């Protein structure tokens, strides 16, 4: 009888040890700990509960905290939603949440302001970039100007590609944190805007564009912070939609802002030119010296406002929130911290394929945007042949018309993202929405898929940083290919071939969606794939 009690005592200790090991990963850790304590008390009182006994041989072997065979948790702060996600079941009363039900709206608003400032600056310069590059050397042919404009657009994202993983790893550290990375990125973007506006040569413009990209990898960090702020997966379709909405808003306001404010002395001689009300006798001297500085100064002002808002109002996520999901009903020992998994173990097959789709989509969208910004202001080609492939020249639009034309893209996309996408994502699921619906809805879908493929919360910002680097690499290659292809098309009257190449890239991206799944568990290992509640 004593040996049996001794076995029960060892069993209680073993259960307690397993509870400590599985604490960050198991939703039922408190229940098992209470069961072990009750069994131990029953042994001490001499009245063991024989119905609750379990032999050592019948106990499942302990698993390491991070292994491919363990059922992994989706990054969420709501334990009930977590359990629903693991079971892959959707409750019968599940309903799509509203924008008003989003948690921590103040923090989300600050992140939204910070995100809005960046596309506002990037899209504003695209309205006049062709003309600014032309002003560096008016003797250059249009084909060379198109190539240089593509380089200016690509070098910014190329620098982001080179530094995105570094900033993501720094954001995951307790010493550096998310907030400092955001502040450095906003300061770098502000400095880049001022320097680009004051550039008088192509080389100087390239330097400031590279500087701004190297210091800025804020999009990935913001996505990680949103994943930490939202309390459940039912909020994902709206919370992760905030950043693409900011991009579309920037596409509306940025080109209009750039087109209106570019070269103000020439466009508004009655206000800023010689003998004008503001310009005086000789006109505004710095606007004559740097004709494209004004829109960049306005962009830098938006960056400065966002920087102050982040510095004063944004909260740094606590270390326990990064290392493991929290629950008000679960007691956790503050001194026990889960180790970050090995870097090589993070890159599962699904993560890599999801990142590949995250590369092809920005490749298409960046090439399309760059091609629009170059094709619209390019001069018309006289007596060019017309056909599906064989036609030359652009549309010859001025900066103001280019800004208005490109803003229409954002005007169309914004209401669809606010009103239509959350409902479609709830009905179809994230992956099916990515496969079925167009570009406007694909961008938020890829962000959610990347977030849900993360195998461990402690590497959330790292994976988002890699995703940002991958997307930036695509955005670096896309404008370069678009500028080179348009220059080749202008020379040989085959501009239509560039647009057909973009269509092929879109088809490739659609085909890749059938190689991925939504979740963070590899198929075929005996575990369930974690689906969103809407799928």
TrEMBL record:
Alphabetically ordered keywords of this record: Membrane, Transmembrane, Transmembrane helix, Transport
InterPro entries given in the database record: MFS (IPR011701), MFS_dom (IPR020846), MFS_trans_sf (IPR036259), Tet-R_TetA/multi-R_MdtG-like (IPR001958)
Database matches in Gene3D superfamilies: MFS general substrate transporter like domains
Topological category with respect to the lipid bilayer: Multi-pass membrane protein
Transmembrane segment boundaries: 181-198, 204-227, 239-262, 292-314, 347-376, 402-421, 498-517
Matches recorded under Pfam families: MFS_1
Family annotation (PROSITE patterns): MFS (PS50850)
Region (Disordered): 1-98
GO cellular component: membrane
GO function term, MF aspect, one: transmembrane transporter activity
Subcellular location: Membrane
Annotated ranges, domain Major facilitator superfamily (MFS) profile: 107-535
Bias (Basic and acidic residues): 1-12
Highest taxon listed in the record's lineage: Eukaryota
Protein's name according to its UniProt entry: Major Facilitator Superfamily protein
Species classification: Eukaryota, Fungi, Dikarya, Ascomycota, Pezizomycotina
